[in-house]
Amino acid sequence: MSNEEQKILIIEDDKDISSLLTEFLSQNGFAAHTAANGLEGLNRALSGQYSLILLDLMLPFQSGDEVLRKLRRESDIPVIVLSAKSLTRDNKRRPRPRCNRNRMGDRIQNKTFRKS
């Protein structure tokens, strides 16, 4: 499958980050689609048309943790969690969302985006 055929869903409420990711993925030949909240993101993710989900944890209407839990009940699509949430001191004690580490694609990545 070529990059052009692979659709990636970005579930992110920060418009700047969403635009940055969309631009990067598009420049590298991927079809990037966005959802700005957890409810919309979960509905789109369950449509079956995406090869990968990039998921923020701090989302309006439904948290990324909840989106991932519900998504895992119904789908095995790879998910990369992108979140600044784990960077704060208070969240070090907080359990991370359950990603299936036996499958390629489920990862947690801290947001380290910087504007040039």
Structure description:
The chain has 116 residues and is an alpha/beta fold. The protein has a single domain (3-110), classed as Rossmann fold, CATH 3.40.50.2300. The chain contains 3 helices and 5 strands; from the N terminus they run βαβαβαββ. Helix 3 links the parallel strand 3 and strand 4. Helix 2 (38-45) runs parallel beside helix 3. The protein is globular and about 30 Å long.
The helix/strand class is alpha/beta
CATH class: Alpha Beta
Examine the coordinates and then state which fold CATH places here, giving the name of the CATH topology.
Rossmann fold
Number of domains: 1
Return the string of H and E elements: EHEHEHEE
Please identify, by name, the CATH architecture.
3-Layer(aba) Sandwich
Layout: helices, strands, pairs:
Layout lengths: L6 E5 L3 H13 L3 E5 L2 H8 L6 E4 L8 H11 L4 E5 L23 E4 L6
Parallel strand pairs: 1-2, 1-3, 3-4, 4-5
Helix pairs in contact: 2-3
Describe the structure using short key phrases.
five-stranded parallel sheet; globular; single chain; Rossmann fold; 116 residues; 3 helices; alpha/beta
Provide a compact summary of the structure.
The chain has helices at 15-27, 38-45, 64-74, and strands at 7-11, 31-35, 52-55, 79-83, 107-110. With 116 residues, the chain is an alpha/beta fold.
